[in-house]
Design brief:
It is built from 31 helices and 17 strands. The chain has 764 residues and is α/β, with parallel strands linked by helices. The protein folds into three domains: 166 residues, no CATH class; 114 residues, no CATH class; 400 residues, TIM Barrel, CATH 3.20.20. Strands 5-6-7-8-9-10-11-12-13 form a nine-stranded mixed β-sheet.
């Protein structure tokens, strides 16, 4: 039986045969013009020599597969032959068979799967989805077709099909896994810790010395800029008659002022290179200059630029790649800019209309996926950031001109206060909302005055909501606000922002908000590398903790950040300064982020093989659940748990992909693969979280990855990584969303909340 064909993401059409599918038009577009090929034409394309050699390996290692493929008269017979072969094998593993059939997908069944079961399930999923069509937004909406067994049949019997070596290599490892020729070997804890040692912390005295050299070079160049009249600022200027030494002393004082770093941020590739001692190579400069021509903004402040290596230390070679790739743009980003498709559906919302999850949104200042959570993006300088991350999830907004680094234009307008009141009314009249995340941009880019205004408005709204509940009957009460979060990268980009005045505002807000029932106060930041944990960052975070705010981290799992031991080392370094890991995100977006994309297989491998060294015993879960109640003691409390459990770090984060528009998950199955070797993943929603009812109508979410595993491994090689360290990577084709630890749970509600869902409109 040939399964029905699915057309485009999350939409379904009646049954079509493989031959009928091939009558459809396959569009491939590039910058120079359009090439239009039918699938029949693609099937006639000869495979190259490298593909032939890998195919020969596949057949030599799998004589049964070769017999099936060679004897099949057409691709349909090949599909059926492989299906029966694999099913016969799976019948010996009842749990795996039930998992494949989706009869049992619980955690116990998932963990019982053998390594060969992973492969058998993937092969059968490939066959069940033979001919699947999905709109590939990596390629401007090109229709991606998955039918790997058909591609094998064409390659074996005709030498055609056009499949690339990356496809055949993925299939080679798939059948090795199925046959048992390759097995999964978990690295020892000692091995993981050895990998971790490759990544020094920014608290290493040797690194601190290098950063001081960078700082001094940058400051001297800024002095030259001011003296030459190239940079004029009413606040940061020299009085007449100062010696060079006096000027340096003055700019050294300015280094502690956040405004200095914002006003002297570097906005051109030439200036960035100059500040880096002209250490950037011509190819990189060509990309950066092309980026500027394309309209991609540059905004790198002096402090953050000082973190990059200029003189590479022998003890930390490659250690700064994760942060360099944040600052230095890729060729693919430059090529795609201007044609980027929004990953976040919120980027396209219209005020007063429902978003992708069905939530009515009053204005662009609110983003929302879950019933319990709302994101506030203020009309203040908080819409800006302390720098532009190259893999920014809001790159679509920079492309459209809605986001920029013109800080003067982003200052609050007279209408903001009125709009803020409207937003608070929306929150107050929401029956399910209890968690507000203030972000942007960056929450801490707002001035102290603006931030205090927002927090005061939230306090008044929370109080009004609480008082309104006194008039409501049991089971008709609205959820009350119990958690306030600030989303910011400034502890990383610009720790000078964390001032006594800011801490005083946060401490005062916590004190009064606690009295009306708000119980959790969280700073969510984005450390990408252990090298970002500097003495300045540590000092700033200590003051935030002293104000009673818990600090959590969200790692963006870029290619450089996905190297063996990198994420584990980051967790360890953050734990030492009192920070809990919260999320580990797969890079979002399409082809513009392909350079920074690490395959979801690597995300699962890291979760299973490295993060597992920090798993907290269940008997200590309730202990860590109390940590947010005493954030001031976070460093000591984390160290105590590590010692009691004998752990190198606490694996408190969940590894997830932000699905377009509707939430986070890592529950997936690889159900297809393109002829380019790029995998197609079918995601389930996170069953541990409350979602909008719209997901009952949405079905599965399908994602085409932006690079093959072969491309990813080649990129790691370029970074100096031994590829043998990543053995088993191809085999990770199933994922499961981890349970949320109690430390991140909402406090128990003492009221019975109404089942009515307000501010929601689900289309019929």
């Amino acid at each position: 039986m040939i399964p029905s064909v699915r057309r485009k993401m999350n939409s379904y059409t009646p049954y079509l045969s493989c031959r009928q599918i091939q009558a459809n038009v396959f569009n491939h577009s590039d910058k120079k013009g359009d090439i239009v090929l039918t699938l029949e034409e693609l099937d006639k394309i000869a495979i190259n020599v490298r593909s032939h050699k890998i195919l020969k390996q596949i057949l030599n290692e799998n004589p049964i597969l070769e017999e099936i493929i060679r004897n099949a008269k057409n691709e349909t017979e090949a599909l059926e032959g492989v299906r029966q072969w694999v099913l016969n094998s799976l019948y010996t593993s009842p749990a795996a068979l039930k998992y494949y059939r989706r009869e049992k997908t619980d955690h116990q069944t998932f963990t019982s799967l053998k390594w060969s079961d992973f492969a058998a399930i993937r092969i059968l999923d490939y066959i069940d989805n033979a001919g699947i069509e999905i709109e590939d937004l990596n390629l401007k909406g090109e229709i991606a077709i998955s039918n790997p067994i058909m591609l094998l049949w064409h390659a074996v019997n005709r030498g055609t099909g056009g499949a690339k070596p990356a496809f055949f290599e993925d299939m080679l490892f798939l059948f090795r896994q199925f046959s048992g020729k390759s097995t999964r070997k978990f690295p020892s804890r000692e091995q993981v810790e050895e990998w971790m040692e490759n990544f020094p912390s920014g608290l290493d005295p040797r690194i601190i010395t290098l950063r001081m050299e960078n700082r001094d070079r940058i400051l001297n160049l800024i002095i030259d800029q001011i003296d030459a009249g190239e940079k004029k600022d009413p606040k940061f200027k020299f009085e007449p008659g100062l010696t060079r030494e006096e000027k340096f002393s003055r700019v050294l004082e300015w280094w502690q002022d956040r405004l200095f770093h914002l006003r002297f941020a570097f906005r051109s590739p030439e200036l960035v290179n100059k500040m880096l001692g002209h250490s950037l190579d011509p190819d990189t400069m060509k990309i950066l200059n092309d980026a500027q021509t394309a309209g991609i903004p540059f905004f790198v402040n002096p402090y953050y630029l000082s973190l990059l290596y200029v003189r590479v230390p022998y003890f930390g070679i490659g250690g700064d790649l994760a942060i360099r790739d944040y600052v230095l743009y890729s060729r693919k980003l430059v090529e795609e800019f201007g044609e980027i498709t929004a990953w976040e559906r919120e980027d396209k919302i219209r005020p007063g209309e429902p978003n992708a999850a069905g939530w009515m949104i009053p204005d662009h200042n609110i983003h929302r996926r879950y019933p319990e959570v709302a994101i506030v993006i203020p009309d203040t300088v908080g819409r800006a950031c302390g720098g532009l991350c190259s893999s920014c999830q809001r790159m679509y907004g920079f492309q459209s001109g809605e986001l920029n680094f013109n800080l003067d234009l982003l200052k609050p307008k007279k209408s903001w206060k009125e709009k803020l009141n409207e937003l608070m009314n929306y929150f107050e009249n929401d029956s399910q909302l209890r968690d507000i995340l203030i972000t942007g941009g960056d929450a801490l880019m707002s001035s102290d005055t603006s931030l205090k205004t927002i927090l005061d408005a939230i306090y008044n709204m929370a109080l009004s909501k609480k008082n309104a509940n006194k008039k409501r009957k049991a089971h008709q009460k609205y959820a009350e606000i119990v958690r306030i979060r600030l989303g910011t990268k400034l502890p990383v980009y610009l720790p000078q922002r964390i001032t006594p005045d800011l801490v005083s505002i946060l401490a005062a807000f916590k004190k009064k908000a606690s009295e009306i029932g708000v119980r959790q106060f969280v700073i969510q930041t984005h450390f990408e590398s252990p090298l970002e944990v500097t003495p300045e960052a540590r000092s700033g975070l200590q003051t935030l903790l002293s104000a009673g705010w818990t600090v959590t981290n969200q790692l963006v799992f870029t290619a450089a950040a996905s190297r063996r031991g990198h994420a584990a080392r980051l967790r360890q370094v953050l734990n030492e300064i009192g920070v809990l890991s919260y999320y580990n995100f797969t890079v979002k977006g399409y082809m513009e982020n392909s350079y920074n994309f690490a395959t979801n297989a690597r995300m699962v491998q890291e979760m299973m093989e490295e993060k597992s060294c920090g798993l907290i015993p269940e008997e200590l879960h309730e202990t860590i659940a109390q940590f947010p109640m005493e954030a001031e003691n976070m460093v000591e409390n984390i160290a105590n748990i590590q010692e009691r459990a004998g752990l190198p770090f606490l694996a408190t984060d969940r590894s997830v992909l932000n699905l377009p528009g509707v939430g986070k998950s890592m529950t997936f199955r690889v159900i297809g693969i393109t002829r380019y070797g790029r995998r197609i993943l079918e995601f389930e929603h996170d069953a541990t979280r409350v979602h909008s009812p719209i997901i009952e109508k949405m079905g599965k979410v399908m994602i085409v990855e932006s690079k093959s595993i072969r491309e990813y491994l080649s990129q790691l090689q370029e970074m100096g990584e031994p590829i043998e360290d990543y053995n088993g990577l191809y085999g990770y084709s199933l994922g499961e969303t981890e349970d949320r630890l109690p430390v991140f749970d909402y406090p128990d509600s003492k009221i019975s909340i109404s089942r009515e869902i307000t501010n929601l409109q689900i289309p019929v």
